[in-house]
């Protein structure tokens, strides 16, 4: 995950939290709705950046190399 991927993930989470707090959501359904709205906000921001920069935000980059990744999944 690169810096921009992390930033947009954080934007989605922060947006969701803010929406949920301000609407005093209770229960799964209301929180699911807040999460969808938070995701839409982050998604639209990502798409606008990609359009302006001409470059994709999401990458296949991973901070673990393949051998380290396999070590984690074989336990």
Task: Explain what this protein looks like in three dimensions.
- This protein has three helices and no strands.
- With 75 residues, the protein is mainly alpha-helical.
- The protein has one domain.
- Helix 1 packs antiparallel against helix 2 (27-53).
- It is flat and about 45 Å long.
- The protein starts with a helix and ends with a helix.
What structural class is derived from the secondary structure elements?
Answer: mainly alpha
List segments where confidence is low: pLDDT < 50 over at least 5 consecutive residues. Answer: none
Average residue pLDDT: 89
Domain module count? 1
- Please tally the β strands and state the result: 0
Number of distinct helices = 3
How do the helices and strands follow one another from N- to C-terminus?
HHH
Brief characterization of the structure:
The protein has 75 residues and is an all-alpha fold.
Topology:
Layout (H helix, E strand, L loop, with lengths): L2 H20 L4 H27 L12 H8 L2
Descriptors for this entry?
single chain; mainly alpha
